[in-house]
């Protein structure tokens, strides 16, 4: 159950990072609140995941999911650059996440 929890925690990390972008420097209350709640949920789920997973692996996967999702949504939502190099490096993060999952005995 730890890997699915970690995946959901990573999704909430994406939510809070995107929420921060919409909060306009924490000046808009609703996006700021959404980001804060998502942060809390993300960290609580990460804490639950590290009860069974090695903390280094869980943290690397959690931040990797957040980085890939946030960078991808940055391209889609905020018209950030989508160069071949950028997409390639995002892909390398995905390879790292999958690799950590495989060598950590994930289901």
From TrEMBL:
Cited SUPFAM superfamilies? Multidrug resistance efflux transporter EmrE
Molecular-function annotations in GO: transmembrane transporter activity
Q: Does the keyword Transmembrane apply?
A: yes
Q: How does it sit in the membrane?
A: Multi-pass membrane protein
Gene3D superfamilies, from UniProt? 1.10.3730.20
Give the UniProt entry's GO cellular component terms: plasma membrane
Record field: transmembrane: 33-50, 57-78, 84-103
**Keyword set for this entry?**
Cell membrane, Membrane, Transmembrane, Transmembrane helix, Transport
Q: Origin, by domain of life?
A: Archaea
Name assigned to this protein: Multidrug efflux SMR transporter
Task: Provide the protein's localization.
Answer: Cell membrane
